[in-house]
Amino acid sequence: MSIAPSTAPDRRAGPLQPDRPAQPDPRTGPLHGVLHAALLALYPPVDDLPGLSSTRLDPFLRKVYAETPRTVWGALILCALILHLSPPLTILCPLPMALLPDSWRDRHVDRFCASWFYPFKQAGFLLKTFGGACWGADPQVRARLGQPPLEQD
User: Fold this and answer.
1) Longest CA span, the chain
2) Which of 36, 93, 122, 139 is 20 to 30 Å from 132 by CA-CA measure?
């Protein structure tokens, strides 16, 4: 007796699962995937604007790793870990962010970034700053916003 593969859509096929899963990059450390998933959760596609999943996030993160001090990279990783492990404190759910359904993940990210607890707010701000730099530099996003593409470094 063979079991046919399921044709039901994955309920969590949202921003944390891009076209290809984030592979740990040995040049950027074993927690590269955690940072990748955190940034994708902060910048999902909205209406007609593309999300961070449609940008070149992996090359951007490799460039950040190569050009910033290790303390900055460590702070990014720490902020991503805090975001992943804090749903029990923001939405009272005992699961990490990667296991949450889309609507709960969105609620968690919103509450995390708007928290009264300043370390959460600051961690969200740091992640949004780097994610926004990648998102805003993407030619597809800039074209959608009516801006010319940026020159290459």
Assistant:
1) 58
2) 93
- Residues sharing a CB contact under 8 Å with residue 86, sequence separation 6 or more, in sequence order: 97, 108, 112, 120
DSSP letter at 46? Answer: B
Model confidence at 32, pLDDT cuts 50, 70, 90, reads confident
The conformation of residue 151, written as its DSSP 8-state character, comes to: P
Neighbours of 82 (CB within 10 A): 18
Burial class (CB in 10 A: 0-12, 13-18, 19+), 152: exposed
What's 29's DSSP letter? B
What is the value of pTM for the model shown?
Answer: 0.80
- CA–CA distance, 134 with 35 (Å, rounded to integer): 13
The tokens for 150 are 């940026």
Give the tens place of pLDDT for each residue, 85-129: 999 999 999 999 999 999 999 999 999 999 999 999 999 999 999
